[in-house]
Design a protein that fits this description.
By secondary structure, chain A is an all-alpha fold. Chain A contains 13 helices and no strands. The model of chain A has no long low-confidence stretch (mean pLDDT 91). By secondary structure, chain B is α/β, with parallel strands linked by helices. In chain B, helix 4 crosses helix 5 and helix 5 packs parallel to helix 6. The model of chain B has no long low-confidence stretch (mean pLDDT 92). The chains are: A mainly alpha, B alpha/beta.
Chain lengths: 283, 246
């Protein structure tokens, strides 16, 4: 089978066409956010939020409203809880995040065990891109494109926020607002990505592309471009792999991203050791 | 108009912790002040009050004839951070960091204008870092790193420069050239205030000294305030290796 056919053929099916477009958009939006997230050192926070949305999803399922609404409410709840405990105790933030997200995730598991038909809900845990409805696909594309555009338009402010909060504050930038705006955008992105890769793997989409790009460049703009390229590539190729090999879409996408990261890391390690060796030979 | 900073009976409290009590200090424009005190004595709190980041529970603060909040909006106060709090692997160039000095004056999208670029280039010229604009900030020497942040303060158009331990980790040569730069800025009317542990070189650099221990114990001309008795009171002990007789 030639390569063109390999690419075109699955797209005849509307479910596959949808899957490719949605995964590309999710990949791009997560990649943009990931650059800021890893520079700010907030990776764990993304992990916390993604797990904390589970009860929201189950409750939404029980009362028959869209998953994303329930997920978003619990994402905000997690953020507020973490902030509240942090400002009122001496416990370190990573421990607080650990407590909050596991407790909420556990609550989600309890609720799931109470819901009879849990078929739909495993989709939320592990993603079900190939079975996404038209409505959900449009919703995901719209919301995540909006998030990506907002972050890109205000990228300079977010970058200063990540780099030097004290300076930003000392020239009167609205730090609190930027802080919470960033968290809300993060919550929206996680919520919107659930259908694609699921609760457990969404954090990979929010850490790996930025990290891979960070290894490759010292320019932020370039970092953004590499992250988006790597992430969109993994998402689209992952969708194809899952179609042809009949494997989990979320699994395929995230595994690909991880492999690319390891390749880049390995390449750099080899190059670095070669440089070292040369220096030793010269001396 | 005489004082860049005018504080009267300022008290700051974190929870139940009183970190500054009835601190008063009047720092004139165009002076070079060294703030000394032990760790946790309240030096950084003093800086935060000047920057408008901490609101005192009592007392009155005037910065450049305005409230700290207004001074902040005008970008009158610039802060040069301690080396260890900066993420030197961050993917930003020298130029981009100095451009960050302009954000308070830019539109909501923070798009650099021609005027912004001119200010950035002038600031970089002033600190002699124009040849390094494209360097990632981690690729600089300790002294160059400090100059970049001083340039950011200049691009901001700040009247008051606050520096936290600027000489920590610098070799003698870098320390001297940074000092030279700061003295030059003072000569141009900027108010320079630095927190330091470097007692030995302090009298050569600063024309004024503030001694801080939970309050401002003393503030004034170096030759009047930087005395053995007062400094030892500040540090709760005997000070060696410092020549107080200059």
């Amino acid at each position: 089978m030639d390569i063109i056919q390999f690419i075109i053929e699955p797209l005849q099916y509307s479910f596959m066409l949808k899957a490719v477009i949605v995964s590309a958009v999710v990949g791009a939006a997560c990649a943009v956010l990931s650059c800021f997230l890893i520079l700010k050192g907030w990776s764990l926070l993304g992990d916390a939020i993604s797990h904390a949305v589970l009860p929201g999803v189950v409750i939404a399922y029980m009362i028959g409203i869209p998953f994303s609404i329930g997920a978003f409410v619990f994402a905000l709840l997690a953020v507020v809880l973490i902030g509240l405990i942090k400002t009122n105790t001496k416990i370190k933030e990573d421990a607080i995040m650990g407590i909050v997200f596991t407790t909420l995730f556990a609550l989600g598991l309890i609720l799931i065990s109470q819901v009879r038909s849990s078929v739909d809900l495993t989709h939320v845990l592990f993603g079900e891109l190939l079975g996404i409805s038209d409505y959900a696909a449009l919703w995901t594309i719209g919301v995540l494109s909006l998030v990506a555009v907002i972050i890109l338009v205000f990228r300079r402010s977010f970058l200063i926020f990540c780099f030097d909060v004290v300076h930003a504050q000392s020239v009167g930038m609205p730090i609190r607002f930027i802080h919470y705006a960033f968290l809300v955008l993060l919550a929206i992105t996680i919520t919107g990505s659930l259908q694609t890769v699921g609760i457990i793997l969404v954090i990979a989409m929010l850490i790996t592309p930025g990290s891979t790009a960070f290894l490759l460049t010292k320019r932020f703009t370039v970092m953004l471009q590499i992250a988006v390229a790597v992430s969109v590539f993994s998402s689209v190729v992952g969708a194809y792999l899952s179609y042809y090999l009949n494997i989990s879409t979320g699994g395929a996408i995230v595994f690909l991203q991880g492999c690319i990261f390891l390749l880049v890391f390995g390449y750099q390690a080899v190059m670095a050791s070669r440089v070292k060796l040369k220096e030793q030979l010269v001396n | 108009m005489q004082y860049a900073i005018d504080m009267k009976d300022v008290s700051v409290q974190y929870g139940t912790d009183v970190v500054l009590k009835d601190a008063s200090i009047q720092i004139p424009y165009g002076t070079f002040t060294g703030v000394i005190g032990m760790n946790g004595a309240g030096k950084s709190t003093l800086f935060k009050v000047i920057m408008g980041l901490v609101k005192p529970v009592r007392g009155c603060v005037v910065v450049c004839d305005d409230s700290p909040g207004i001074a902040q909006k005008h970008g009158h106060v610039a802060y040069v951070p301690q080396n260890e709090v900066v993420d030197w692997d961050f993917p930003v160039s020298v130029y981009e960091v100095v451009m960050m000095g302009r954000v308070g004056l830019q539109n909501i999208f923070k798009t650099p204008t021609k005027e912004d670029r001119e200010h950035v280039e002038n600031a970089l010229t002033k600190v002699k870092m124009l040849d390094f604009v494209d360097r990632q900030i981690g690729e600089l020497s300790g002294g160059q790193k400090k100059r970049v942040f001083v340039a950011r303060a200049l691009a901001q158009g700040a009247e008051i420069l606050l520096l936290d331990e600027p000489f920590a980790g610098l070799d003698a040569l870098s320390e001297r050239s940074l000092t030279q730069l700061l003295v030059e800025l003072k000569g141009e009317g900027k108010t320079v205030i630095l927190a330091t542990h470097e007692l030995t070189s302090l009298p050569d650099i600063c024309d004024r000294v503030a001694l801080v221990k939970r309050t401002v114990i003393a503030y004034g001309l170096t030759e009047e305030v930087f005395t053995r008795a007062l400094v030892e009171q500040t540090f709760d002990g005997i000070i060696h290796n410092v020549n107080f007789d200059k």
